[in-house]
Amino acid sequence: xxxxxxLSLNEYETLLNKAAVGSGLPWGxxxxxxxxxxxxxxxxxxxxxxxxxxxxxxxFWINYCKKIDQPNSNELDNVFDLAASVYVNPDxxxxxxxxxWNGQALIVDGKMQLPSFRACLSEQQLKKLNERANKxxxxxxDESRLSGAGAGLSDNx
Amino acid sequence: xxxxxxxxxxxxxxxxxxxxxxxxxRLSFLRQFLRRASNENWKFNRDLFEINANGVGRALYRLSTxxxxxxxICFSHDLPDEKRSDRVIASAWDATFxxxxxxxxxxxxxxxxxxxxxxxxxxxxxxxxxxxxANRSVRLWDYVLNCLSNGNQPDLDRVRDVGYLxxxxxxxxxxxxxxxxxxxxxxxEEANSPFQLEMMTVYLIRxxxxxxxxxxxxxxxxxxxxxxxxxxxxxxxxxxxTGLGMAPFLVNHPRLIHNWFEAKENAIATVKNVQSATQxxxxxxxxxxxRLKPHLKAWQSExxxxxxxxxxxxxxxxxxxxxxxxxxFGIYFPWKLLCDWSETELSIEGQEMLNSLILEPYGCLVDNxxxxxxxxxxxxxxxxxxxxxxxxxxxxxxxxxWALEIDWLDPSSDARAWYxxxxxxxxxxxxxxxxxxxxxxxxxxxxxxxVARAYxxxxxxxxxxxxxxxxxxxxxxxxxxxxxxxxxxxxxxxIRDNTIDxxxxxxDMLRAKLSFFxxxxxxxxxxxxxxxxxxxxxxxxxxxxxxxxPENWIWAP
Lengths: 157, 557
Known about the structure:
In chain A, about 50% of the residues lie in helices and about 15% in strands. Chain A is of the alpha+beta class.
């Protein structure tokens, strides 16, 4: 059985953001990509494998941002355009494959999804996100350890 | 006179030297917490206390609001001295804690015992709201323990000089490490204002620490041990040791930060707008001024910057006392006149102290501003892609002129880089030109430099082009452009100083945030590390439930 990991939604969005930056997306684009991924998870929908796959294509997310900055049609080319449409106009009604937004809630295969503040993902998915997020952290060096935080290593006073 | 006319501008307030001189006030989060706990008559219970002679064991402290219970779960440890570090990279502590939503079962305790002592390495669930840990003050712990076990009370001056028996080294909330997302609790009245559950956690830790030392003194010498005198007991707050982790918060939450500073500035302007002060209000104010000298005496610091600031603050207090001798409160708008006087006569530290003090007699006018300090940050601020380049540029010129005036070619202007180490993800600040590899890991915490870079590129295209097209060709500026558009609507959202300048003091950022928490006795350990005290002088939960005043302990020595 696949092991499931549970994160808070806030923790999940932060991790998505770091994974996106670690994949080479500019800061601001990573924010929108992370918000998009977290939006699905806020309805208990895990579109993470598709989301991670798209991290290999910066232009995909740059185009995604253009769509939310300057919305000019309701045509949905991919699953993430659904999140873009709802972000631009939460009152909108849109359908794409198994998904439907009725202006208030997300419906999947005809079933209304309950909002959730948790994110359930597989161990494998978490590993993939962490591998990308880790690229945003500076390697541990003695110099950094001693000088970077501005405090000593022991506090006996 | 009008509150909006009297309100200080963001250009004046949001400068690092002023932010780094701020003091706690009625709107500080721990003050809001105590006020609510008292008004709603919250009940307090110690549900469990199982600690052995080595100080190892567990305890439960419960606060009950009219609607629900919160329980602080405490794990007490026996920590060898050589492992005692306040930094994020520490791996063991004298005590570890989590705030539980409700009343935990024994199964919960067993589950949490496998996680909470490991802090960042453990995992929490939606039932847990905060995660924290604390270390003993070696300066005071053994001394107080020996005093009590021998039947003596500790020396009050010595207690006041340190101010705490344990200091927390982190208090995590808002979904960190698997705990409940803020959205789970934000609609609860007692948790809506910022950091209310974190304040509850620290407040209950304070009680646990006092119980722990009395318990260990009793075990050490059952025949002679005494409890702390209730007056001396009150002189213990909870210490806190804070590093750079707090600084990015101020930059990363512009909408929230705007609400904090604006609420406080509205409160100050409201009191300045009081046309005439009553005798009771003046007496209250003067009584608080009389507490300042003892408060300052107990404000110990070895850091040259704070030593100098406290010297000047001592002179400011004398000037204020002298001014009050012949100041006529019978004139119109007395608080405005006093504040106007401070602007030319007192240091920034003294001015900010006065701004906090004048709020005290006016709870009925200003406390409600505390309700406006939270913020829904769940949705990203939208970018209007139809804006023209000309419009974006003029917005930047209007709100970020301070950033455009900086010479960014001067290496001292971008001397530092904010980054996160892979070592337990500790936030750090490095010297960019000594460690050029840091450029690859830099975080988005220098709005000044980034806005100047974006502005330069905005000068290239036709002014009538749309922002959406610009961001498609310059996605690297998306973050800072979104920030500019956010901050142009919310003036107090942005620190109007260079956060990567060679002379920048991160402790100024830490102090601003800590003053909103309600901290006092700021004691910098370096330019990027500060120790503070919280709840020093405040009533304990049992005192609060028996009617102790939740407000009148402030500026305690």
